Amino acid sequence: MTSTGEEHRAAGYGPWWWARWRSAVLDGSLALVSALECAAEGIPFARDAGVPVAVGVVFGLLAGSVLLIRRRWPIAVVLVAIAITPAQMGFLMGIVGLYTLASCELPRRIIAALAGMSLFGTMIVTFVRVRQDMARGDLTLGDWFVPFAAVTTSLGLTAPPLLLGLYVGARRRLMESLRERADSLERELQLLAERAEERAEWARNEERTRIAREMHDVVAHRVSLMVVHAAALQAVARKDPEKAVKNAALVGDMGRQALTELREMLGVLRSGEERPPVPTPRQASSSGAPGAPAASPVSAVPLVAVGAAAAAAASRAVEGEGPSLSELEELVGQSAAAGMVVNLSVEGEARSYAAEVEQTAFRVVQEALTNVHKHAAGAKTHVRLAHRVSEIAMQVENEPPPEPASASAAGLPSGGNGLLGMRERVTALGGVFVSGPTDAGGFRVSAVIPAVS
């Protein structure tokens, strides 16, 4: 693993202004060497200046120890080095000070000004010293050697530490920039991971809600009709055997339809399994006696990944499987066969719509009729379907039930999710859903869905 900028900054634990102990030890060692150098150079300086040697040594120790604060105040170190240049002291301090100054994050004009002062100071002192040596006869070279020695010495003591400091400073800033970018990328990746987890959780919740809504729509209507027919069968079993046989056949047919739709729903949740074709309710009823149980039971299967289920459901919708508006008359006929007085009226020219639109419209009418069976058994119901230019509208309205206690007598429980499921289906397609009691004491469910061909 690479260390980020925050970890790098958090690792500072040195004394005073040092980030690390090793930095403090390095600066202390350099300051000690510089102090010894200046103390040694203070001896000839004291003799030339006519002061006691001890004064020159102490002065050199104090001046050389200034290198200890080079990281904190690099400008002060360079100024002290320039100030003691005429005494030919502090060569190490001048070199290290220029390097530290150039590597710091200071304005370039300040670095250039101090470097120029050090360059010219060293050049003048060297020029004067070499000329004095030639005047005393210590050097017998030509006059050209004086400026050459001055320029060469000043450049040699100024340019290398300055260039090296600029390079190290630029590299340090680059590394800090890379660390900051790494920190930023790490935070962004963490944020993306959190958002991906939230989206995955949201997708799982949406998938569970969709599956629960589909299961509710599939089971509630069929089972409600089966319960109504079973109650009628119990009432007329001894009085009217023919009607009892007819009701038993209807119960069996509706049970097979519910079983078939449950098989289709569970099949959506399978990932890549080849399944044999499931017979339609009519095929199942024609192949056996009325009321016979289904040939093969439905086994429970675990839920697969959300993406696979969603993709399978989408492909199922595109292929046109599932209920459609063409089955609306059959749906109303089933409710009428259960004893409900229901009228169906269609306005406008019938045409085909997108599979999800037709399925949603069918499920809205189906769930509304199921609610009538549950809460207003025996009430007269009106189902209206309107084909408009850019939308399809449906309305299911029931009159007050003749006997308010009939709903509870039927023994049909209510989970309270029917209206919520209808609203979710309609709003998911950009439609409008309204439901509520009527002034006459009944109940009305209305929905308008944009038409998508």
UniProtKB/TrEMBL annotation:
Region feature Disordered, mapped onto this chain: 269-296
Biased composition (Low complexity): 284-296
Domain Signal transduction histidine kinase subgroup 3 dimerisation and phosphoacceptor: 207-273
Transmembrane stretches, start-end: 49-69, 75-98, 110-128, 148-170
PANTHER family tied to this protein: NITRATE/NITRITE SENSOR PROTEIN NARX-RELATED (PTHR24421), NITRATE_NITRITE SENSOR PROTEIN NARQ (PTHR24421:SF10)
Keywords: ATP-binding, Coiled coil, Kinase, Membrane, Nucleotide-binding, Phosphoprotein, Transferase, Transmembrane, Transmembrane helix, Two-component regulatory system
Xref: InterPro entries: HATPase_C_sf (IPR036890), Sensor_HK_TwoCompSys (IPR050482), Sig_transdc_His_kin_sub3_dim/P (IPR011712)
Gene Ontology terms, MF aspect: kinase activity
Keyword Transferase: yes
Coiled-coil segments: 168-206
Enzyme Commission number, as recorded: 2.7.13.3
Protein name: histidine kinase
Gene3D superfamilies: 1.20.5.1930, Histidine kinase-like ATPase, C-terminal domain
SUPFAM superfamilies reported for this sequence: ATPase domain of HSP90 chaperone/DNA topoisomerase II/histidine kinase
Catalytic activity, as annotated: ATP + protein L-histidine = ADP + protein N-phospho-L-histidine
Entries under Pfam families matching the protein: HisKA_3 (PF07730)
